[in-house]
Design goal:
By secondary structure, the chain is an alpha/beta fold. It has eleven helices and seven strands. It has helices spanning 21-32, 36-45, 48-53, 59-70, 76-85, 91-97, 114-123, 132-135, 142-151, 166-174, 185-194; strands spanning 7-10, 17-19, 87-89, 105-110, 128-131, 159-163, 178-181. α10 (166-174) links the parallel β6 (159-163) and β7 (178-181). α1 crosses α2 (36-45) and α1 (21-32) packs antiparallel against α5. The longest helix has 12 residues, at 21-32. The protein is elongated, with a radius of gyration of 17 Å.
Length: 198
């Protein structure tokens, strides 16, 4: 017997949207007056982006360090604009969410810091965005799924998580959630129907 699902957790990049990291770097570089390679050397090479996604650096701290290294004046608005332009929503996939069973609570669970989480929230009005930085742990660590389910007021056994990466699905299953992979609209539709959410 299939249990009644009370909450649905969805990946963002790779499921609800396509993310173009080079484009993100390009827009940040334009705002900072440098090259994308210089931005990338700081964000990924120096580990700033990962520290931000882990919650070790909040948005202001990340920008402060980045600006000090680059001699720039990047703002949260610049990050928001760059992340938004680098994210292409999958409209057909999002249309499925409009048809979900109305009593199911829906949220996005993403390995991102507060700056990118704000951009995702702006792209998905009305959908709660739970990010690794705020929860203090990243996918596929089982603790993030338990924290997310608690935030939604749903028991793990009544929560379904869907991601395009199987390692993240495995982490959710080990935490006691139901979880499955989906890579496009058709596969997401199949999963949602299987769990009687459509």
């Amino acid at each position: 017997m299939i249990p009644m699902i009370h909450a649905l957790l969805l990946d963002f990049d790779g499921l609800l949207a396509d993310y173009d990291h080079p484009r993100h770097l390009q827009h940040l570089a334009q705002a900072a007056g440098c090259t994308p390679a210089v931005i990338d050397a700081q964000l990924r090479g120096a580990g700033l982006e990962l520290a931000h996604a882990r919650g070790e650096l909040d948005g202001d701290a990340l920008l402060q360090v980045l600006n000090a290294q680059l001699g720039s004046r990047l703002s949260a608005a610049d990050w928001l604009a760059a992340r938004t332009r680098a994210s292409t929503l999958r409209r057909d996939t999002l249309a499925l969410l409009q048809r979900l069973r109305p009593d199911a609570r829906v949220a996005v669970l993403t390995n991102n810091g507060a700056l990118s989480a704000a951009a995702i929230a702006a792209l998905l009005p009305g959908i709660e965005v739970l990010c690794s930085a705020a929860l203090g742990v990243r996918k596929p660590d089982p603790r993030i799924y338990l924290a997310a389910a608690e935030k939604l007021g749903s028991a793990p056994a009544r929560t379904l998580f869907i991601d395009h990466l199987f390692r993240n699905v495995q982490g959710a299953r080990s935490a006691g959630l139901h979880a499955d992979t989906a890579h496009h609209t058709q596969s997401l539709r199949r999963v949602l129907r299987r769990w009687h959410l459509l």
